[in-house]
Structures are given as C-alpha cells and as structure tokens.
Automatic annotation (TrEMBL):
Keyword Membrane listed: yes
GO annotation, cellular component aspect: membrane
One Pfam family recorded for the sequence: AA_permease_2
Membrane topology: Multi-pass membrane protein
Keywords: Membrane, Transmembrane, Transmembrane helix
Protein name, UniProt field: Si:ch73-352p4.8
Primary location group: membrane
Transmembrane portions of the chain: 26-47, 59-82, 94-116, 136-164, 176-196, 216-236, 248-273, 293-313, 346-364, 370-391, 403-426, 432-451
UniProt KW Chloroplast keyword: no
Subcellular location: Membrane
Species: Kryptolebias marmoratus
InterPro entries noted in UniProt: AA/rel_permease1 (IPR002293), AminoAcid_Transporter (IPR050598)
Gene3D superfamilies: Amino acid/polyamine transporter I (1.20.1740.10)
Listed PANTHER family: AMINO ACID TRANSPORTER, CYSTINE_GLUTAMATE TRANSPORTER
Length: 484
C-alpha cells in the first residue's frame, strides 16, 4: 500500500512539473514586446517607398500611414475581443473555425503555410540581409547572392532559438524590441530638429491632385498595412499568455497606439531630410536617411535596422507555428505537427516545417512582389474573421465576451478590409489573382483528405510509419494537459 502511494506521488510530481504542454509564460511586458517587436520590423524601413510610389504625393502618403495605423488599431481591437472570447491559440484559424466553420479555417491554414508565412518571413529576412550587407559595399549595389545567404543565416538563427526554448525566444523578443525602439527614436530626433529649423520645403504642396492615381491607392494601403502587420500575432499564443482576459486587450491597445504615433513621426522625419525623389531611389531608406542626418552614427543605423528585422522574424516564427499546432490538434493537419518536444516544451515540428518553405521563397522571390502577393489572402481572411465575430455575436448573444469592441469599429474595419481586397483585384490583378487561385487549391485538398478521406490504404500506412519515425527522431509527444 505504501509503495502504491509513493508511485501515485511520483505520478503527481510528474503531472505538476514534467508533463508535456505549452506553459503560460507570457506576461504583459513580453506581450507588448511581442506585438511591437513583430510589427516594427522591416516594414517602416522598406514600405515608405511603396506607399509614396502608389499614393503619388507626400501629404497623401502621410495620410495613408495614419489611416493604416487607425485601421490596424480597429482590427487589433476586434482581435482583442476574439482572443478573450475564444481561449484557444491559433489566431485567424481558431476564430474562423469557431465562427464560420471548418472550410474557411482550413483554407486559412492552407494559405498561411503554403505562401503567406513563407512570403512574410522571406521579405523580412531579405530586408535583414540587405541592411547587414549593403554598408560594406556602399555606394555600389550589394551582391544579391550574398544578401540572400545572410538572410538564410538570419532565418536559421531564429528557427534555432524558437526550437530551443519558449523562454529564450520571449527574452530575445523583449531585448530586440528595446533595440528597435532606440533605432526609431534615433531616426525621429534629427527629423524633429530639421523641422524646428524650418526645413519644410518637401511638405509644401504635399497634396498634388494631379499625381494621385486611385487605382494604385489600394497598393499604397497594402504597403502601409504591411508595415503595421503583426498586431494579430499575440492571438496565436493565447494559451501561453498569463491572464489573457486582461493582458491581451492592454497589450494590443498600448502597442498599436505607440506604433502608429512612431510610424507617422518617422515618415515626417524622412521627408524633413530627404526629397520624395531621393526616397523613391533608395532601397534602404533608413541607410540613406542616416548618411544625410546622422553622419556621426550612420554606421550604427543599418545594424539597428537589421536587429529590428530579426525581431520581427522572431515574432513571426514564435506565433505562426502555433496556428499549425492548433490546426493539427483539430485534425486539419497531420498529427505530428500538434506534438511538443518532451524536454524543450516547444512545438518543434511546427517550427521546423516552416523553415524549408521560407528558404525556398527567399531564394526565388522579389521583395515588393511578395508584399502584394501575400497581402490579398492575409487581409481577405482577416476580414472574414471579423465578419465571423459579428455573425457569432448575432447567433450567440450570451456567449462570454470579457472584452467587447464597439459595433461601429468592428463593422468599419470589416467593410474597409473587404473594400481594399476588392480594389486590389483591379489594381494588381496578376498577383492578387495568383493569390486567390492558390487559396482555392485548398478546397480539393480539404475534401479529399479531411471531409472524406479518400487516399489509398497503402498511402496511409506509409504516412503513419513516417510520422512515427519522425516522432522518435524529434523526441516529440502529444500535449498531456488541456491548456484552453
């Protein structure tokens, strides 16, 4: 009897300390760092060129930056409601599954890992490689092969950190967020000083009506919204957030207001020092800015920007695998991806799955094409998720909602998202058409492999054998505790 009690006690100790599951380790500061650190990446240093090019004037480009920030804040508030209403991790996938059903949820999962996440990670890592390499070759162009090699090394480092430890990935994110905040303030100060000295010539006649092209305006918003992208990543890790009902809304509101103010000020600083023509000629806006306004510390700026890109990359690799993890747990992806490393407590298979796809797209892709290519599906499904929230409110009015966004904000965000997505089909039919077609390729996959499993029995045996061997090789197991 005594031996039996000891055995029970050992089992209890294992349940408390050694059980395999994702632990709640993300407090308010890591949550804020996670959002700011993912949002402030390469976008603010690359997208100003795309926003100005497609908006046609300085004044309208600043308006696009401000409106993109407000729209992103509206979307973030909607996701704060979704994140506190549904306690599962997984972000977009979970909300579509709970509100609109399995088909749109699977399609979101399909396009996320077919090309949205690889495209997003590849253009952030390309920006990282460019800012690391270009200072060594200025004023000449840096070798493309070297830029891509350094980009691959950056991706490899981030994947290694996220496979090794959740806590290490979180601390890395906090550190890199403080670095990038320092970089933004370092850019803003010279611009404010220049404006105080009366350098306002680039703002005169800021709204040149003749240069505005309405058909390209959605692409300006895509570039602006790309720079704000990342406000939804905290929702991917809801099950790992401490006190999510309080932490998620607070972190989202504080982060997005801060980022919007900083982004508008940075663009004002750019135009205070550089002419629109100079900005359009630069592929690395912050480096050009530093060479003019911060000559004493100009060599430091590319390093800070590169670290900023690394932070955004880390945030993406921390958040997105949780969507794949939850999708596999719900039966919409192979079970191996819902497993966790038995010692590291990280979703190792889901993180590793993204790595070869990102490297492949990084080697073959072109940076501005990737932004437009990925944006259509991303924003279409975000609009679907907030539409699903409105439908769910109507169908289940008594469902607990610890945080409830005003109806006007939710409706405005949903309508604007669908409007921008619709206009993009007219503005850039080739890339958006490709994106739409690739999204729809998930339909036959869903009906053949999930809705009614029609694959041959031999294929299933081979698949199960490979999954078992991978599980042994990676030392992973299913989650032993329900965390939602």
């Amino acid at each position: 009897m005594k031996r039996a009690r000891m055995k029970d006690g050992q089992d209890n100790r294992k349940t408390d300390g050694e059980v395999v599951h994702l632990r709640r380790e993300i407090g308010l500061l890591p949550a804020v760092s996670f959002i700011i650190g993912t949002v402030v990446g390469s976008g603010i240093f690359i997208a100003p060129k795309g926003v100005l090019l497609n908006s046609g004037s300085v004044g309208l480009s600043l308006l696009v930056w401000a409106m993109s920030g407000v729209l992103s804040l509206f979307g973030a508030l909607c996701y704060a409601e979704l994140g506190t209403s549904f306690t599962k991790s997984g972000g977009h996938y979970t909300y579509l599954l709970e509100t609109l059903g399995p088909v749109p949820a699977f399609l979101r999962l399909w396009v996320e890992f077919l090309f949205i996440r690889p495209a997003a990670s590849s253009y952030v890592s390309l920006a990282f490689g460019r800012y690391v390499v270009e200072p060594f070759f200025a004023p000449c162009a840096a070798p493309t092969a070297l830029v891509k090699l350094v980009s691959v090394l950056g991706v490899t480092f981030v994947v290694a950190v996220n496979c090794w430890s959740v806590r290490m990935a979180s601390r890395t994110q906090v550190t890199l967020t403080f670095v990038k905040m320092f970089a933004l303030i370092l850019i803003i100060i010279p611009g404010v000083i220049a404006l105080a000295k009366g350098k306002t010539e680039n703002f005169q006649n800021g709204f040149e009506v003749g240069s505005i092209t309405l058909d390209r305006l959605p692409l300006a918003f895509y570039n602006g919204l790309y720079a704000y992208g990342g406000w939804f990543y905290l929702n991917f890790v809801t099950e790992e957030v401490i006190n999510p009902n309080r932490t998620i809304p607070l972190a989202i509101i504080f982060s997005m207001v801060t980022v919007t103010v900083l982004y508008v000020l940075i663009n004002v600083a750019y135009y205070a020092i550089m002419t629109p023509a100079e900005l359009l000629l630069s592929d690395a806006v912050a480096v050009t800015f530093a060479s003019r306004a911060l000559q004493g510390v100009a060599p430091v700026i590319p390093v800070l920007v590169a670290l900023s890109c690394l932070g955004a990359l880390n945030g993406g690799f921390f958040g997105s695998p949780r969507m794949l993890f939850v999708g596999a747990r719900e039966g919409h992806w192979p079970p191996i991806f819902s497993m966790i490393h038995i010692r590291r407590q990280t979703p190792l298979p889901a993180v590793l799955f993204m790595y070869p796809l990102v490297v492949l797209m990084l080697i073959s892709g072109e940076i501005y094409q990737l932004i437009n290519f990925a944006s259509f599906s991303r924003w279409f499904f975000i609009a679907l998720a907030t539409l699903g929230m409105l439908v769910h409110r109507y169908r289940f009015p008594h469902h607990p909602r610890p945080f409830k966004v005003p109806l006007a904000i939710a409706v405005t965000f949903t309508v604007v998202c669908f409007f921008i997505v619709g206009l993009s089909l007219y503005s850039d039919p080739w890339n958006t058409g490709q994106s739409c077609a690739l999204t729809l390729t998930g339909l036959p996959v869903y009906y053949v492999t999930i809705y009614r499993f029609r694959l041959p029995r031999r294929f299933r045996h081979v698949f199960n054998y490979c999954s078992k061997q991978l599980q042994i090789l990676l030392e992973v197991a299913q989650q032993e505790v329900q965390t939602y």
